[in-house]
Structures are given as C-alpha cells and as structure tokens.
Write a structure and sequence with these properties.
- By secondary structure, the chain is an alpha+beta fold.
- It folds into 3 domains: about 50 residues, no CATH class; about 180 residues, Jelly Rolls (Sandwich); about 150 residues, Sandwich (Jelly Rolls).
- Helices cover about 20% and strands about 35% of the residues.
- The strands form 4 sheets. Strands 4, 5, 6, 7, 8, 9, 10, 11, 12, 13, 14 and 15 form a 12-stranded antiparallel beta sheet that branches. A 7-stranded antiparallel beta sheet has the order 3-23-20-25-18-17-16, with no helix packed on it. Strands 19, 21, 22, 24, 26 and 27 form a 6-stranded antiparallel beta sheet that branches.
- A hairpin with a 5-residue loop joins strand 21 and strand 22.
Length: about 425
C-alpha cells in the first residue's frame, strides 16, 4: 500500500468511526439528544429543549423573531456551511404612501441572492389608480385581495381592458404600457413580480412624468393642437392617486378597441378555472406557463400543501425560482453544493429565492394549508425531482452510491409525484 493510499484509508476509517459514534450516540440517547461533528471531529451535543450551557443564550434576544425562524436559531444537524440567506419579508420593506394607496418592494438591493427577479406589493383603494406607465422588464401579477380594472396597449395598438379578482393573474410584457385601478367598496391588493432583480418600482416610465419633461411646443406639434391644451398636465408624477371609478367594462372595452381591436392573447388568466396539474393527499399544484397561457413570458406554479405535506426534493434546470408565501407556515432547505445547505422558515408575506439547479424542498410545518407561488423568468416551467432521477437510473448503480437496497429503488414511483404524500 502506498503512502497516499494509507492516508486515504486512515481518513476513511476516521470518517466511518465518527459516523458510527454519531449513530451509537443517537441510539443510546433516544430523542432527547442528537450529535453532529464539529470542524475538529468532536461530537457536538444538541438537545431538543436547548438546555445545555453550550446551547444557552443568556443575553437579550428578539424572542418574537426567533419564534418565527426556529430553523435559523437552531438549524437542523444536516445544515452546513456559510450559505447566504434566501429569504426576505415584505414586512421589512419601506412602504411608500400615496393618496390612492401604497406600495413596497423586495429587490436585489434587499435580498442579495435575488439577481434575476424582484417583487412588489401594492394596495389601491376604491378608485385608486396606478398611473399609466411601463417598464423595461415584464410584469407578472397575482391578485391577493379585492378587484381591479387593468388596461394595456400592445405594439400594434391593440387594446386589453378587463376586470381581475382575487386569485387572478396578469402579465404585461416589457415595454407594454398599462394601468391598474382599484374597484369595489375596498379596492384591491396584489403582488407584482418582475424579471429583473434590480427593478425599481419608484423609477418607472410614467405618463405624467414624461409629458412634464417634454417642451409644450413639441407636444403641440406632435398632436397638432394648441400648446395650451397641455397647460394642466401635473408638474410632477401622480404615481398612485384617487379618482372616480371607471365606466362600465363593456363601454371602456369598446372605446379602447376602436380601430385596432383587442390583443390576440389575453393579458389576464384565471387559475380558478383550470384543473390542478397534479393532485395528491399532500396537496396540489397548478402550473401556469406559455403552454396554457400564450401571452406570458414568465412561468409559475401555484402550490398548496396540506399540513405535513412536502413539495418533494427537486430542482429547476432552466431558471432561478422566486417564491412568495401567500398563507400558512413552512420551511425550505436549499443545498448549494460543496457540502453547503441551509434551512429557513417562511410564512405569509415572505419572499424566497432559489438559484437555478439548486436542489430544495418546501414542507408545511403549520396546522393549516401552506400556499405559495414559484415564479420563473422564462416562458416554460421545468423541474427534475430526486425520486424521478433515481427511478430512471440503473438501480445497481444507484445502490452503489446510497446503499438503500435495490428493493427500495424498485418501488420509487416512475412518474414525478411533485407533492407527498401521494
């Protein structure tokens, strides 16, 4: 045996010895204590109630925040490495208040990992208007509460005017001018997702802002009217403002479509009218991408996990994943390769982010349904599950890796489960 082989054998024995010690300790101590290995290969004792001196926190702490993030305060023994956080809460975001409502955002400036996507929450009161504007990037939206009237015009001058309600979606591709107005007795609240992590809701192309910064004589020449026509253009952006409710929908649609017609593919979509893509005992998922919504260039999955349900171990090979937690409580572990893994807790109003191809799962840790959305800056949804991978790889080869026995591997479902239990 060579010197290198001898060192490798010693290292392997040392590793196996440490692993055996952990198993023995766990078996001997039952559920009261568990061990992991420190950087010096010394067993670390962990207790469920964290009563040991090495686990104590005698100084002042933020108890409320700790209770919301138990897997950060006391991470699972399987977590390892210095993986950056992949969670940010809208509750920590600055809220811009206006006469017609408010808005706040989570971008790469808040959540450093979120390089490809950003999110916005917006509230519009009855009659509240998000003024006519457009963005460089695409805008994907989920109605969280109430009702709204949305308008848009495409590159051919074709119009879209519709009313959207709780649970509905809309998409405005980059460069498409649009507006949103709150309806009903109490307006609306919605989530916006943009395919640009550096997006800034407070720096968009606004109608009033543009006209204010264009010489009146140029405006007059452009429209062939007297310059006085534009004397009352607001001296600064309106952004979010209150106005009377719009006219009846059919009337506004007819007026907006005159001469050019309606957009060929609707900019709104109603997931409530589609069958779930996958249903199991653990919950359901609805996948909404260009396959069923031709107008969208942003794919999404709407996931509902029942208590104890699991969005199975998987990854997305084509793009990063931006998440929003609508209701309930859950946790997610993301494996970042190189032996790095981190677990974080989520609840309503939180944003999560997973890099392209990074494996992860989401588990419902509460006693009510966990509802969250997965959003991707690509027209089509793609994923690969751990079970699917193992089921379609020769069982002898897999068993040589993980030593589970080929009987276990033969029983893995040949089709992706998505949500467990089945």
């Amino acid at each position: 045996m060579s010197e290198g082989q001898d060192e490798a054998t010693v290292s392997r024995r040392k590793f196996l010895g440490a692993g055996s010690a952990i198993v023995a300790a766990a078996a001997g101590l039952g559920s009261a204590q568990a061990q992991e290995t420190s950087s010096k290969d010394e067993p670390i004792i962990r207790t469920p109630d964290h009563h040991l001196p090495s686990e104590s926190e005698p100084a002042a702490k933020n108890t409320a925040l700790d209770e919301q993030n138990p897997n950060s305060v006391w991470s699972p023994a399987t977590d390892a490495g210095g993986q950056p956080p992949f969670k940010y809460s809208f509750s920590l975001s600055h809220k811009r208040m206006e006469g017609g409502g408010w808005t706040r955002q989570v971008t790469v400036r808040d959540l450093a990992i979120s390089k490809k996507m950003a999110g916005v929450q917006m509230r519009l009161i009855k009659g509240g208007v998000r003024e006519l504007h457009w963005h460089v990037g695409a805008e994907w939206a989920l109605m969280l509460y109430g009702s709204a009237r949305i308008t848009a015009v495409d590159q051919e001058g074709r119009s879209h005017v519709s009313d959207v309600n709780k649970g509905d979606l809309w998409i405005f591709p980059g460069g498409i001018p649009h507006s949103i107005q709150g309806l009903g007795d109490d307006g609306c609240q919605f989530l916006l997702v943009f395919d640009d992590g550096n997006f800034n809701e407070f720096a968009t192309f606004l109608l009033t802002d543009w006209l204010t910064h264009t010489p009146p004589d140029v405006l007059a020449k452009n429209f062939n009217v007297p310059a006085e026509t534009f004397a009352k253009v607001p001296p600064k952006e309106l952004f979010i403002f209150e106005r009377p409710l719009p006219r009846p929908l059919a009337e506004e649609q007819k007026q907006a479509e005159a001469g050019t017609g309606r957009v060929p593919h609707s900019f709104d979509f109603r997931p409530s009218e589609m069958k779930p893509t996958k249903v199991s005992k653990g919950g359901e998922v609805k996948i909404v991408d260009r396959k069923i919504w031709p107008a969208t260039n942003i794919a999404a999955a709407i996931v509902t996990l029942k208590p104890g349900g699991l969005r199975e171990l998987h990854w997305h090979p084509n793009e990063d994943e931006w998440q929003y937690y609508v209701s309930g409580k859950g946790r997610m572990t993301v494996f970042a390769a190189g032996g790095h893994a981190r677990t974080m807790d989520f609840q309503e109003g939180d944003v999560g982010y997973v890099d392209k191809s990074a494996p992860h799962y989401v588990e419902n840790t509460g006693d009510t349904d966990l509802v969250f959305i997965e959003v991707f800056p690509t027209p089509y949804y793609e994923d690969i599950s751990l079970a699917e991978w193992l089921a379609h790889t020769p069982s002898r080869l897999v068993n040589q890796h993980i030593a589970t026995g080929e009987d276990f591997l033969a029983k893995i479902n040949k089709k992706e489960v998505v949500i467990v239990p089945e």
